[in-house]
């Protein structure tokens, strides 16, 4: 009976086998009452379909509107960057697959730059993964290391994708706000701060990770060493990971310094640091990003990568 | 007491693996090993599937125009679900092929290669406990992707039938047993993955074979994930039939395509899905929560490539027509080379892959009883190390428990320059001479 009713239980089937008229009519009647389109989405994406950008980019598309909305430059990338890509496109083998976890010359260059910045040896083959934008790095990191039963701390306001990505991994987002402390001087993003006690309260044995974004979108806050130390201390105490979204690392203004939380004592082994070519070189449309961290964490991101898209575009890398 | 309980739960946490359970059993990948071997030992690499010739000039020029042209906004984000010029031309092109009006905004979505399109389909439609039917031999990523989604892969083999007397075996001789296929469907079956033209065999499923599959999809109300990346590489005047065009199938099929395979530009990683909005909406949800945008300039170039092909459709100077013609010649060349030395080629009806039976070469690489490793894998490794010729063992395209069912075949990629195929022939000829001389 179950089999027979399922033959009829589907919208959109144009042909189906009729058993007997009587049987089929009665099944059809009861089936149409309870009929659900069987091809619905999986649980993992339930409730994740709406997206603020879909709505706002539509509105901003009107040419009479001055668009300071979506985060992309409308100035040209530097010429040398465009020229290098044009040169790469002319080299035949650069139009075919490259190394899955990152084009050798790119991971080598990244390791050299970040070794200098971090003051430690970074192995280009094991400590780096190239991804489709920093967005792709966030996805690979969360899919690799976060699952049902985990809690992930997200600092509000937050770049909007953190929440659905954590939910898609089956985990629970735990929010803590930056609170505006006005000491009478002119407003600065530095005035938005975390309450240390409040933050400590958010950590528990289920806290798998905290997502840090510095420099911070949307407020523009650049976390100080002291602020990072508070976060680091809690990560170490609770053996939590830190997912550090640092895509705006080069956009820091006079009097401020970008500090990598991974360089604080005890943090390298538990931090994934995420960067973006799009933000670094004003080429958001190239969609290249990277994750840097210890081999024992990056190897799991690499497993996600080899089972999701395998390689990133060669000439762009 | 508080400190004590903290350290207990901390201990418990630290003793758990750091990685998520969804990665269980999917960390191994045959390409890691075989790509490394080819890089170290091979002088002629017919292993991994990519052309060693460039994409067509018109495509490379389109890319350079996109990068250095006046519109520098092509270096910035484009529409997340697909660059408008690309989805429009894809809707037009595939609408024509399917005989349907396609909405570029809802019935087409661009992905980072067909690989990502496959990932999205499994993530969007396969839940824990769902079964997915996979036809063996299969492109190796299907199995780990189903597992990562919490699904259970259910395998059904193509079985070789003996070719007619005196003829070489064709990929058409590898067929599904209809009763066996039907027996694989259960109430837990969510989808079947179809790959036609098939990698690694090169089989082009006939209309009759597709109707068999379609009937079962409709009867059991399941989805069809149709990997058609080699759709233009079909030989001997055969037709690539799109299962989505069969009755009852459009509403339940996601068609997957690849610019990499279509335009010989695998390194661009531009793919797409075509299907009804009701299915694609869930792929859009996946996309906006994983990478959100695909690279703009490559999409712009592929759009122009398709524009050109639309204008030249079925004409002699169409790239699709020319590429198939060239690859057919290369196929025939490799078939001859292999046949001449005693490797028995299975002539592929499509793709740029060819599988050959290496049973006659057992004298060079003897059987090792009780070996864990399938024979063809040991053979392929021996061959690349000792002869400098790289190919992939067919067992790589079977699930673990079936790896020894067809373990005396290896797969060659023939999307290679003449010089490469000639060099392969030289290696094979020399090998044959060494075998037959005392």
Automatic annotation (TrEMBL), chain A:
- E.C. code: 2.6.1.63, 2.6.1.7, 4.4.1.13
- Single biological process term from Gene Ontology: L-kynurenine catabolic process
Q: Which UniProt keywords apply?
A: Aminotransferase, Lyase, Pyridoxal phosphate, Transferase
Which co-factor is required?
A: pyridoxal 5'-phosphate
Tell me a GO cellular component. Answer: mitochondrion
GO MF terms listed in the record are:
cysteine-S-conjugate beta-lyase activity; kynurenine-glyoxylate transaminase activity; kynurenine-oxoglutarate transaminase activity; pyridoxal phosphate binding
Q: Which reaction does it catalyse?
A: an S-substituted L-cysteine + H2O = a thiol + pyruvate + NH4(+); 3-hydroxy-L-kynurenine + glyoxylate = xanthurenate + glycine + H2O; L-kynurenine + glyoxylate = kynurenate + glycine + H2O; L-kynurenine + 2-oxoglutarate = kynurenate + L-glutamate + H2O
Question: Known InterPro entries for this protein?
Answer: Aminotransferase_I/II_large, Kynurenine-oxoglutarate_AT, PyrdxlP-dep_Trfase, PyrdxlP-dep_Trfase_major, PyrdxlP-dep_Trfase_small
Q: In which pathway does it act?
A: Amino-acid degradation; L-kynurenine degradation; kynurenate from L-kynurenine: step 1/2
Q: Where is the Aminotransferase class I/classII large domain?
A: 65-317
Entry's family note: Belongs to the class-I pyridoxal-phosphate-dependent aminotransferase family.
Q: Describe the subunit structure.
A: Homodimer.
Name of protein: Kynurenine--oxoglutarate transaminase 3
UniProtKB/TrEMBL annotation, chain B:
Q: Does the keyword Nucleus apply?
A: no
Q: From the UniProt record, give one GO term of the biological process aspect.
A: kynurenine metabolic process
Name the needed cofactors: pyridoxal 5'-phosphate
Q: What are the subcellular locations of this protein? A: Cytoplasm, Cytosol
In this chain the Aminotransferase class I/classII large domain maps to: 44-424
The record's annotation in Gene3D superfamilies points to: Aspartate Aminotransferase, domain 1, Type I PLP-dependent aspartate aminotransferase-like (Major domain)
| Presence of keyword Cytoplasm | yes
* Molecular function per GO: cysteine-S-conjugate beta-lyase activity; glutamine-phenylpyruvate transaminase activity; kynurenine-oxoglutarate transaminase activity; pyridoxal phosphate binding
Known EC number = 2.6.1.64, 2.6.1.7, 4.4.1.13
CDD domains in the cross-refs = AAT_like
Q: In which pathway does it act?
A: Amino-acid degradation; L-kynurenine degradation; kynurenate from L-kynurenine: step 1/2
Q: Which family does it belong to?
A: Belongs to the class-I pyridoxal-phosphate-dependent aminotransferase family.
Self-association and partners: Homodimer.
What name goes with this protein?
Kynurenine--oxoglutarate transaminase 1
What is the source species? Oceanites oceanicus
Taxonomy, top ranks, is: Eukaryota, Metazoa, Chordata, Craniata, Vertebrata
Gene behind the chain: Kyat1
